[in-house]
């Protein structure tokens, strides 16, 4: 009687999941995947792999096992390769988002070097025609005056670190007002914004150490709030680029 009930139960569940262990569940899932997928939407190569993976194999059929194993290895390789491509795409996407956000936050023109002004007219035009949001720092110097060369070198470094600030330099003799800028007041720094003079510093070298560098000039300008926040490259950006390459 019990054997008949058992046989009846097996017949009732025919066609449903017949494997209960982990391997059996995987086998049933593969079979279900093959049967449930639209045949037209599956590439022939993928359909063959799914069919072979879901079909029982004889223990003595070594050739079939080797073929399945080989196809499984190719599949696994493609999955791993796809994962690496997805990771690289994600990194590129994150880098692009960071660049877009950086551009939105760092609005306005960008410079990055020290402009040499040749005449007084060019000096006035720079002050009057530049955008109102731009800070302009002008170094008035003369060859052979102590501190002028060092300040020019320092401003060149700062120009690359603060590209949103326009750094300029002009010889005192080219300003058209050379009598106002004698060697006694050089080097001089004039700071403009919106066409207005907001700060001026004469004999700047005397307010710094005897041997000063860009960091000293940066600290000096920051004391008066004349520099914006320095642009800092994202720490992982360099590593991301190396990984992508």
UniProtKB/TrEMBL annotation:
CDD domains: Phd_like_Phd. Keywords: Cell projection, Cilium, Cytoplasm, Nucleus, Phosphoprotein, Sensory transduction, Vision. Pfam families: Phosducin. Residues 1-67 are annotated as: Disordered. GO terms for biological process: regulation of G protein-coupled receptor signaling pathway; visual perception. SUPFAM superfamilies: Thioredoxin-like. Residues 1-14 have a biased composition (Acidic residues). Residues 1-241 form the Phosducin domain. It comes from the Eukaryota. GO terms for cellular component: cytosol; nucleus; photoreceptor inner segment; photoreceptor outer segment. Residues 25-36, 58-67 have a biased composition (Basic and acidic residues). It is found in: Cell projection, Cilium, Photoreceptor outer segment; Cytoplasm, Cytosol; Nucleus; Photoreceptor inner segment. InterPro entries: Phosducin, Phosducin-like_reg, Phosducin_N_dom_sf, Phosducin_thioredoxin-like_dom, Thioredoxin-like_sf. PANTHER family: PHOSDUCIN (PTHR46052:SF3), PHOSDUCIN-LIKE PROTEIN (PTHR46052). Belongs to the phosducin family. This is Phosducin.
């Amino acid at each position: 009687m019990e054997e008949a009930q058992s046989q009846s139960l097996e017949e009732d569940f025919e066609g449903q999941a017949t494997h209960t262990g982990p391997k059996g569940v995987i086998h049933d899932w593969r079979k279900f995947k093959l049967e449930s997928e639209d045949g037209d939407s599956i590439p022939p190569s993928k359909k063959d792999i799914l069919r072979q993976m879901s079909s029982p194999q004889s223990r003595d059929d070594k050739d079939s096992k080797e073929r399945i194993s080989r196809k499984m290895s190719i599949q696994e390789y493609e999955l791993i390769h796809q994962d690496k491509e997805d990771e690289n795409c994600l990194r590129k996407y994150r880098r692009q988002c960071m660049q877009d956000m950086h551009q939105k936050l760092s609005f306005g023109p960008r410079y990055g070097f020290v402009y040499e002004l040749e005449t007084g007219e060019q000096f006035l035009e720079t002050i009057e025609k530049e955008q109102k949001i731009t800070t302009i720092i002008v170094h008035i110097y003369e060859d052979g005056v102590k501190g002028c060369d060092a300040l020019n070198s320092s401003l060149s470094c700062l120009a690359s670190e603060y590209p949103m600030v326009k750094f300029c330099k002009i010889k005192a003799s080219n300003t058209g007002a050379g009598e106002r800028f004698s060697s006694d007041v050089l080097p001089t720094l004039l700071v403009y914004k919106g066409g207005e003079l907001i700060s001026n510093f004469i004999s700047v070298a005397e307010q710094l150490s005897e041997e000063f560098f860009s960091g000293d000039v940066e600290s000096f300008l920051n004391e008066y709030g004349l520099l914006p926040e320095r642009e800092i490259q994202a720490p992982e950006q360099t590593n991301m680029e190396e990984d992508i390459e």
